[in-house]
Amino acid sequence: MITAYHKEYSDCLGRDMEFKVYGSGGKPVLAIPGEKGRFFQWEETGMVEALKSELERHRLQLFVADTIDAETVCNQWGDPYHRVRMHEGWYHYVVDELVPRIGELNATGQDLLVVGCSMGAYHAANFFLRRPDLFDGLIALSGAYDTYGMYQGYMDEVAYANDPCVSLSGMALDHPYIDMFNRRRMVFCCGQGAGEEASLAATRRLEQVFLRKGIRARMDYWGFDVDHSWFWWNKQMPYFLPYALGEEPWPPRAREDREEPEHAYYPYYPYSPFPPRERLLYFEEDFD
Description:
Layout: E1 3-10, E2 15-22, E3 27-32, H1 41-44, H2 47-50, H3 52-56, E4 60-64, H4 80-106, E5 112-117, H5 119-130, E6 135-141, H6 157-161, H7 164-169, H8 176-182, E7 185-190, H9 197-213, E8 217-221, H10 230-244, E9 278-281
Parallel strand pairs: 3-4, 3-5, 5-6, 6-7, 7-8
Antiparallel strand pairs: 1-2, 2-4, 8-9
């Protein structure tokens, strides 16, 4: 497998930023590392190995970005006004500088699939939901999709723009982005095991927002043995890739005929209205 390391100056951030490329062609995939992760995290945690066959067959070309989480979402003692603006600067680095650079390096002319795990899932979802014109697919695993815990409840116009649950809740039902979302493929997944409590609650909150806005997405809730770890994310990412890439049809409607009580699958929300294990949100029989 061909790999390449890049270190390039960012005008948005006023510093050098690094990223790494795996593979030499195929569908461009932008990967966002997990909490405080660096551009080499996906290699160290086994995700590159999990995707090796796809990369070697030139079906994917993987671009792993660098983050500044330690200065933004994870800097719990910093001033939130400054932190959210640093976050916005990094957002613009990715969409205004890194994404065009990926287009130059990939040279297929395809829109990007954006993916991430844990904090990377939040970032990936935020990129996709703010700029569906740049991305045609999303895989978000075990993320949190609001900024309340990241910025201790701080809210202004910049934090609002980077809070998917809040900003989507305020989106008009006739906003053109909703049609764009529904012409693309979104996958959200989290487990119900150790460490997944916050992600489980966050994924359900986002699912409720999608339902209210008529936004289609695949929402999967895996079992009690599925914890918040790379062991499971390395299994989930290859599993969901064919769906996100449009190479396999979406599964049939989520099964409603299970006899198990809802609390058997949703221990933290025993009165949840959602069906067990997985829910596919859509309002037509098939995707185009």
